[in-house]
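Sorry to interrupt, but I need a hand with the structure work. Leave the record below and I will have a look:
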Amino acid sequence: MVPWPEHGHLNPLFLPSRFIASHNIHVHLLSLGARSQDLKQCLQGARRNFTNKNLHFCDLSVPTSDSESDKDAYLTLRQVIDIVDEDQDKLIEQLGDEFPTVESTFGPNLEEYIKEEREWKLNNNKPLWCLGPFHMLLESSTDIYHRSTRHVCLEFLDKKDVHSVIFLTFGTTTILSQEQVNELALGLEQSGHKFIWVVREADDEMMDTENTVVEKDAKIELSEGFEERVEGRGIVVRNWAPQLEILGHSSTSGFINHCGWNSCMESISMGVPIASWPIHVD
């Protein structure tokens, strides 16, 4: 299995990998090391299957550079993109002929390629199958993927009324700014509502919702005493959480999310309404 190394692509191939591995077939899943950590946690506590011994994670690493020139180039690029937002027409006028033409961008054979691709699709007599989504099969296969231990989130939900808990998470590649975290915490505290809030920290250096660089292992701080004040009606999770199982729990009433592909598929299929905050390309 060779998915694009982001969770929106990893999960759709991780699930069939688990099913194939459960039939005593060896599966090798290639991924970036930082991205596969959550997938490995999904297998913890699984029993009566061949997944653990037959699903092999082939962790790839990406060379990084901490040179000042690279950082300067990155900052220069960011500065140009602000310029674009603030005065796009002026910038275009200044650059003039420096913009590439359509012909130089796509090359001389693009039209022929598109024509041949269309003819192949229309004349292809071979059967094609669209597979998935697989998460509903995973949900129903309790005899194969039953967990011997329950996550703290599920134990929390077990004690709550039906449709009484809001679930908040913004995926694995979105980092909220400290100000946004503070506002969310204040809203949750004042609402009096029951909640599960996954507060993720950066797996790698990435951009937050305000286009600010967040370094690896950057810490997200909650206001002092927040978790103590909401104890009993809300919990904060700082690492992986079993999202599909949380959404499928009868006590979950709503989902506050960034509208990632997997989150949308899982929430819709479980019948949980989404209060959406699309971020970046979502």
Summary: Residues 7 and 35 are 7 Å apart (CA to CA).
